[in-house]
Design brief:
Helix content: 25-40%
Distance between the termini: 23 Å
Strand content: 25-35%
Number of strands: 6
Strand order of the largest sheet: 2-3-1-4
Length: 113
Amino acid sequence: MLVLNRFVVPSDTQDSFVERAHAALAALAASTGYASGRLTRALDDPAYWTLVTEWESVGAYRRALGRFDVKVHATPLLSESLDEPSAFETLAAAEPGAGVVASASDRAAEPWR
């Protein structure tokens, strides 16, 4: 599972943003089920940042959000991200030099139920 949080950060607050993002990433990284993460900045416009994390499952990510460390260090930062979908399920993947491996969706056929 991929979680992509996007931010627009004014230049005068970028130093404090980076410090808080590092703390958030460290708190998330200490969670069970965390696979990887990175803080990135757009090359074309340095005001645009993303915090990208990968998780073994939706449940692992949701459990991580309940951890005290994450509530203190990550949740306040994540609340500043752009209001848009941020959690994505992997439906196909390819390792270097390998073919594409498709996966079935974990979403319910009728999510309104």
